[in-house]
Amino acid sequence: MSNFTKKQLGKWELIYDELIFGIKLPLKESNSWFLGDKHGIIAIFNEDEILYVLGTENIGKTINNIIKGINVGDFRKMLAIVEFNLSGNNIESKILKGTLATKIDKKISTFSFSISQAPKQHLKRLSEAFNVVSDSTYGGPTVKSNISIDSLPS
User: Fold this and answer.
1) Number of folded domains in the chain?
2) Under a CB-based contact definition with an 8 Å cutoff, are residues 81 and 150 in contact?
């Protein structure tokens, strides 16, 4: 559970609320074409559970990459680690092809997303802060702590 609250975001709380409580669309290609190459922040959900928050310079391309598995990205890596207990050095190759990639794609097809505009120069810091405040399933401090502990040598 996060020790941080959205009040600590200060002036950025409105963007956070827009992401978390705003309109959510199914994470499908048909919902990404109109997004274009605008920069902003994407929040990914499983029903009402916040899975991950990321900043991007091209919302449409990033959504399509997530859906199609075009590049690995931290979101797909964290999904594989958390949901499929994947670890190791070859994580990228394991999650781009084969049955595991198909399982990841199937799981992603059940998710939804929301977007919000944010200043381009603050996208990375805002998405990191939003992951901390929301304690998102794949990007929050709890999952990162668990992964660190699980990766300790026996």
Assistant:
1) 1
2) no
Q: What pTM does this model have? A: 0.90
Instruction: Specify if 151 maps to a domain.
Output: no
pLDDT digits (tens, 9 = 90+) for 93-126: 788 888 888 999 999 999 999 999 999 999 999 9
Instruction: Decide if 148 is inside a domain.
Output: no
Instruction: Give the residue from 81, 83, 82 showing the smallest Cα distance to 92.
Output: 81
Task: Give the CATH number for residue 26.
Answer: 3.40.1440
CB atoms within 10 A of CB 86: 17
Residues in the chain: 154
Q: For residue 25, give Cα distances in angstroms to 31, 115, 133.
A: 7, 9, 22
Q: Provide the CA 29 distance to its chain's centre, in angstroms.
A: 16
Residue 53 CA, distance from chain mean position: 4
Q: Is residue 126 part of a domain?
A: yes
- 105 found inside a domain: no
For 28, the domain range is 10-71+110-143
